[in-house]
């Protein structure tokens, strides 16, 4: 690893189109909730997750392959028929929906407000890894073993703004890598993210409830409030997944 940098906002990851990513590893966080959800799906036996940009692209997948599950949200809730011209999405964006019974052996086509945009913005990198607090230790181990060049930790954000929970995820990754960063160029953004994570302490659920706009919003929706605690868990998933050239995210470890 030569350097580690954190990108905080959608403007930052959209600017990746002008950078040479041929030697970069991108680690993408959308803690509340897209990357947490897709990793939960893969841990529960989904064959693959396909991140798509928008609802029409998801519907095109369903027309080509009626067996795929459609998943996604707008404004935090599952995409309904009134947004699609009559097609109800099978799943929303809550990790609690993506059980083994629902997704085992299935391909999930997913579209969310920010997470899928961030993943696709990194497509030119040598490796793109979706990450969450739930698997941050496993991702750190993969990066430590395999990243030879720059590591870009991408926060998906909320609409066009930074998201506190994604900064926590990025900081958790930097913190786990910290013991091996001697001789690595650690950009100020990575130090800032680590400081935010360490300042949050052990109660990440409470930190998100107090400081994260997405956390406060989800806690006000009875059906989704439990997602905050689940997404704040650390290292209870051992899965590592990668976005492949064919557009599919599959487990690699």
Structure description:
- The chain is built from twelve helices and eleven strands.
- A hairpin with a 5-residue loop joins strand 10 (241-243) and strand 11 (249-251).
- It is of the alpha/beta class and 253 residues long.
- Helix content is 39%, strand content 18%.
- The protein has a five-stranded parallel sheet with strand order 7-2-8-1-9, with helices on both faces. The chain has a four-stranded mixed sheet with strand order 3-6-4-5, with helices on both faces.
Largest sheet: number of strands, sense, barrel closure: 5 strands, parallel
Distance between the termini: 20 Å
Low-confidence stretches: none
Spatial shape: globular
Question: What percent strand?
Answer: 15-25%
Short précis:
This protein has 253 residues and is of the alpha/beta class.
SSE topology sketch:
Blueprint (H helix, E strand, L loop, with lengths): L2 E5 L2 H5 L10 E5 L4 H10 L4 E4 L3 H10 L4 E6 L2 E2 L2 H4 L15 H4 L3 E5 L3 H7 L5 E5 L4 H11 L3 E6 L8 H14 L7 E2 L1 H13 L3 H8 L1 H7 L6 H6 L9 E3 L5 E3 L2
Parallel strand pairs: 1-8, 1-9, 2-7, 2-8, 3-6, 4-6
Antiparallel strand pairs: 4-5, 10-11
Helix pairs in contact: 7-8, 8-9, 10-11
């Amino acid at each position: 690893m030569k350097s580690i940098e954190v990108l905080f906002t959608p403007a930052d990851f959209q600017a990746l189109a002008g950078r040479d990513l041929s030697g970069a590893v991108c680690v993408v966080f959308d803690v509340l909730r897209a990357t947490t959800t897709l990793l939960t799906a893969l841990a529960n036996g989904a064959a693959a997750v396909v991140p798509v940009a928008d609802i029409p692209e998801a519907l095109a997948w369903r027309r080509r392959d009626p067996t795929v599950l459609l998943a996604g949200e707008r404004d935090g809730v599952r995409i309904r028929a009134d947004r699609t011209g009559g097609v109800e999405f099978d799943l929303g964006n809550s990790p609690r929906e993506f059980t083994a019974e629902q997704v085992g052996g299935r391909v999930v086509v997913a579209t969310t407000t920010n997470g899928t945009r961030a993943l696709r913005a990194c497509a030119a990198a040598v490796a793109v890894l979706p990450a969450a607090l739930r698997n941050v230790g496993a991702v750190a181990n993969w990066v430590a073993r395999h990243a030879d060049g720059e590591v870009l930790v991408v926060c998906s954000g909320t609409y066009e703004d930074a998201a506190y929970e994604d900064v926590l995820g990025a900081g958790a990754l930097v913190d786990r890598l910290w013991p091996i960063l001697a001789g690595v160029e650690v950009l100020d953004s990575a130090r800032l993210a680590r400081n935010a994570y360490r300042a949050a302490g052990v109660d990440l659920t409470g930190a998100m409830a107090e400081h994260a706009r997405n956390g406060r919003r989800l806690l006000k929706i009875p059906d989704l409030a439990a997602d905050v605690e689940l997404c704040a868990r650390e290292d209870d998933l051992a899965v590592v997944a990668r976005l492949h050239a064919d557009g599919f995210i599959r487990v690699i470890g």
